[in-house]
Amino acid sequence: MPALSTGSAGDTGLYELLVALPAQLQPHMTSQEDLTFLWETFGEKSLHSLVKIHEKLHYYEKQNPVPIVQGAAALADDLAEELQNKPLNSEVRELLKLLSKPNVKALLSVHDTVAQKNYDPVLPPMPDDIDDEEDSVKIIRLVKNKEPLGATIKRDEQTGAITVARIMRGGAADRSGLIHVGDELREVNGIPVEDKRPEEVIQILAQSQGAITFKIIPSIKEETPSKEGKIFIKALFNYDPNEDKAIPCKEAGLAFRKGDILQIMSQDDATWWQAKHEGDSNPRAGLIPSKHFQERRLALRRPELLIQPLKVSNRKSSGFRRSFRLSRKDKKTNKSMYECKKSDQYDTADVPTYEEVMPYRRQTDEKYRLVVLVGPVGVGLNELKRKLLISDTQHYGVTVPHTTRARRSQESDGVEYIFISKHLFETDIQNNKFIEYGEYKNNYYGTSIDSVRSVLAKNKVCLLDVQPHTVKHLRTLEFKPYVIFIKPPSIERLRATRKNAKIISSRDDQTAAKPFTEEDFQEMIKSAQIMESQYGHLFDKTIVNDNLTVAFSELKTTFDKLETETHWVPVSWLHS
């Protein structure tokens, strides 16, 4: 709690404020129960005592008192010795009895410690057998508690010496400032380590308790001061150091899950960065594979990631956009293709490792973030989107697609579709104006970038459902998309909950609705697994649509938080 001044007569003390608070808040109480609770809480004697102590301490802190003596305990001993030689009347006996009590002696000892500002632990004496000729040797003692020392060691391949490989930021070794990278380790607690393997030295350290004595030859190299900044990254993969054969020290590793936010503490090592979980109160960092190292490992492990097409112009795909989804029968006789806006971030998104992020909260005068919904055919994505629109038509909006087919009598231009000529549609394709598009029965259908802008310009949340490969092209400063993956439940739940439902294969042909088949369920599960495997690192939220009502409630809560809470977004969105 912030300290309030009590040093002058004009100041109101914290204690007085505390006592007066219930009466000041009484007009705002809605029930007698709340008022009773307030009086009981602020009327606690223990709370009053603590506040009074707080005020006294703050008062003396402002006065900056200086101790009259720094050896009260010794003075008390001298006084007791002198009193022993005096006539022992009742007052002298009482004083001697008081001075001999353990609690009084402890109080005087604490007083002397505080007065002398001597808070460091008492270390054992230095060894007597230090070689005077070894003027470059340092003898270092660290007091070990339950935490690791926070340093890794290695054997120098040329000299065979055991040297300090890295110092973990925030660890005991780092806080001491006495051990540095490159220092050569000669002894640990008097045990020579020159002929030992690093694993044996680590075992000696693990078994050591209390103060640990190191005999070290300092490194000749001067360490360059690290430029530690506030760098945060979002992990795009799961990592367990215990399963990593390459990590130099498993105990020093930091485990994390996909989606975790990590604070980078050091990037001095090109292979192993030092990081800690964002918000973790423990100052000690752990080792994680660097971005370059992890990308290289993933590339070697999954070479197919590197041979994905980097351009999707005129690329054929197995499915049509959900709004114009082709049935399985149609897929055999019709071809569909997509065109996505090109993005400089395409290549790096294909090998998911880390993404530098920073906190972002939408301001009231800003446009809403684009919400992208992704999911396999039949998962219920359209139903969820429809429920959102109905819940608040003034707040949510959807894009109006373009088409080259002829307008039907009951349709209005700009409502069901925006009707344009085939020549103009193809011109817009060449100018990358479509997020995605396809061809169905010799007519083009597509969603334009301008249609998204149109919804956002009306100060509405734009709900957009697209193929997952399109997401990476929408991840720009302009749209700041929040991507929600609608995932199917288990196939057993699909059979139980979808047995009376129907699947619509095409928005443009509502009569094509038909009951779900076992093949539909199998394809939905498989499609979801592929989406999650290839594009899961781009998803901000996953909602399992087991029950439509429950899934909608979760979706609505997610939207509310998106508009009011702080979220982590790519740095590039805010620093473009």
From TrEMBL:
InterPro entries: GK/Ca_channel_bsu (IPR008145), Guanylate_kin-like_dom (IPR008144), Guanylate_kinase_CS (IPR020590), L27_C (IPR014775), L27_dom (IPR004172), L27_dom_sf (IPR036892), MAGUK (IPR050716), MPP7_SH3 (IPR035599). PANTHER family: MEMBRANE-ASSOCIATED GUANYLATE KINASE MAGUK (PTHR23122). Keywords: Cell junction, Membrane, Repeat, SH3 domain, Tight junction. Belongs to the MAGUK family. Residues 139-220 form the PDZ domain. Residues 10-64, 65-122 form the L27 domain. Its main location: other. It comes from the Eukaryota. The keyword Repeat applies. It is a peripheral membrane protein. CDD domains: GMPK (cd00071), PDZ_MPP3-MPP4-MPP7-like (cd06799), SH3_MPP7 (cd12033). The keyword Transferase does not apply. PROSITE patterns: GUANYLATE_KINASE_1, GUANYLATE_KINASE_2, L27, PDZ, SH3. This is MAGUK p55 subfamily member 7. Residues 368-560 form the Guanylate kinase-like domain. Residues 228-298 form the SH3 domain. It is found in: Cell junction, Adherens junction; Cell junction, Tight junction; Membrane.
